[in-house]
Amino acid sequence: IHFYKRALYLIKVMPGKVKVRVVAGRNLPVMDRSSDTTDAFAEVKLGDTTFKTDVYRKSLNPAWNSDWFKFEVDDLELQDEPLQIRIMDYDTYSANDAIGKVYIDLNPLLLPQPGQRPVSLTESSGVSLPVTGGGCVMSGWLPVYDTMHGIRGEVQIIVKVELFSDLNKFRQSSCGVQFFCSPEVPEGFKAQFLPGFVEELVVNDDPEYKWIDKIRTPRASNEARQLLFSKLSGEVRRK
Hints:
This protein is α+β, with helices and mostly antiparallel strands. Mean pLDDT is 77; it is low at 1-14, 116-134 and 167-171. Strand 5 and strand 6 form a beta hairpin. It contains three helices and ten strands. The strands form three sheets. It has a four-stranded antiparallel beta sheet with strand order 4-1-10-9. Strands 3-2-5-6 form a four-stranded antiparallel beta sheet, with no helix packed on it. The protein has a two-stranded antiparallel sheet with strand order 7-8.
């Protein structure tokens, strides 16, 4: 019985954690014409989980310095779901206004880094989990893009991914496998063998032809299509 319970735990264990910190924004547009400022905050979303920063009042260059937002995800979410950063303008008496959005592909952070060794991380259950040493980190300023108005400033973020090794030997995962879209072998790599032609077709309904498109804004429709393309891209790579 003990072995059976432990096996179930290993199958269900989350293979990774994503930590996000929203540091600051700059050159945001004026959203409050009466004061020529903006009351900006950020929403951070991965999968079905969303976090929000505090509202930074009356500034076009907010300094949120948020806490670390932590997501526990499975390998499908890590590869398919983009990390979404939405910058919003807070309104007290009406709906909050969208400033722009950032989509981040997490796949580059899943690749093993040179010189890293697996280390042991013990969960509360007492099971020792191999983890990529130190995790992979990306940080910097990213453009905030709005489908209606274009670039609307920048946001500074820090993203850290801690990827657990695949503990279920009966289940294959493409986490950490590097994919290329290139007419030739990239510099620094060599082709060891050619497995033949692979064809994969992934189809989904266009969000603009769904019933909800009749009542939502053009911006929301554009963003729904962007998100769908991102998810389909990740799914094709896994295939």
